[in-house]
Task: structure prediction
Amino acid sequence: MLKLASRMGRAKPSAIMVIAEKAKQLKAAGRDIVNFSIGVPNFLPGEHVYEAVREALKHDTGAYGSNRGREDLLDAFLAHMREIGLDGYKRSNVAVGIGAKQVLYNLCEALLDESDEIVFPTPYWTSYLDIAEILGAKITLLPCPSEQNYKLTPAQLDRALASKPKVFLFNNPSNPTGMVYTREEIAALAEVLVKHPDTWIITDDIYNRMVFDGVGYHNFVQFKPELRERTAIVDSLSKTYGMPGWRVGFVAAPELLANALVTLNSNHITNLPEIITAAGVAALTGSQEITKEKCAEFARRRDQVLDTLLSIPGVQCPRPQGAFYAFPDISVAFGKSHNGVIIDNDVDFCAALLESKGVACVPGSAFGEPRALRISYTCPRAQLEAGLQRFKQFFDELVEVEVERVSAAGR
Result:
C-alpha cells in the first residue's frame, strides 16, 4: 500500500486559513460577512514599488538569481536594520526567503533535529507549533495568560532554559495579541538569555514598524551584543508595506546559520524572482510615508476596537501596542447560550458569532489560548464599525443556560 511520509501525519492546515475560507464561502453564498480573521494589512504598496517592477520587466533576463538574495536587496535590508537600531550586520549575515514563514521553516530545519526541544510563549502564531510538529521537535509552551498581559516573564524564561532547549522562539510585536515588550522588559529577558549559552534564539520581529504609543521596538542584541552570535532576527515586507502576497522575507543571523539557510534555499527555492526583488528594493529604499500613515491609522483603529471590547461586561483585553490585532479574553461567555446554542468554548463562540452575526474571528485555541479569540482590525472602516457593533450585540444577546433550563421546566 502506498503511504505518505510519517511527518505528514503531523502536518495540518493553518487554522487561520480554515476560518478565512469559511468566511469566504459564506460571503460567496450571499451572506454579509465582516472578516476579522485573516492578518492582512489591507493596503497596497506605494506607486514607486509598481514603477520599479515595470522598469525591471523591461530589463528582465529570466536568469537564475542569488540563493542568498541580490546584493541591492541585501543592502536595502541592512539599511533598514540600522534604522531600527540593529547595526553591525553584513551581507554574509543575511538570507532571503519566500516570506517570513519560509524563513522560519528553514531556520527550524537548520537548527532542529527530531526530538530537539524548542520553547516559545503562549499565545503563539499558529505556524510555530505547526512547523515544530512537522519536524518532530519536542515543544515546550510557556503560558502567558491575559493576567500577565500575554507577556513572558524573566522567571518563566529562566526556568524554561534550564533544560538547555535547542531553540527559544520569541515574537515581538506579537501576533496574535498585538502586545509589544517595553525596553525594560526586553532588557530583563536579555539578562536571562546570556545566562543560558546553549540555546539558539529566533526573534520574529516582522511587525517592528507597526508600534504605537511611543513604546518603540527593541531586540535582545541591542542590550546584550554577545547574543548576536546565536540570534536569528526574522523580518518581512508583508505587513509593513502592504505586500503579503509578494512573499519577501529576511533573516539576519550569525554567518554559520545564514550560510545554512542559503544552502537550503539552493535546494528549496533557488532564488527570489528578479521582479519581486526589484519591488523589495523599492519598498525598503523608497518613501516610507504609507507605512507611517498606516501605523497611525492602525493605532486609531486599535483604540476603537479596545473601546468596544472594554465596554462589554466581563471581557478582558490587555492593551495591544503594535501590529493590528486584539486578543480579548471572552471566557465570560462560556456556559451561556445564544439563540439556543450553548457556548462551551472559544470554538463554539466563534462558530455561533459567524453563523448568527456574520463576523469571522479566529478561536484563541488556534494560538494556544482557548479563553480568547483574535480580531484583525484591518478591514475597511465601515466594516470595522459594523463588525464591532455586531460583536457587542452578540454579547448582549447571551443568556445564562441555567436560567433557560429553569424557564423550560416551569413551562
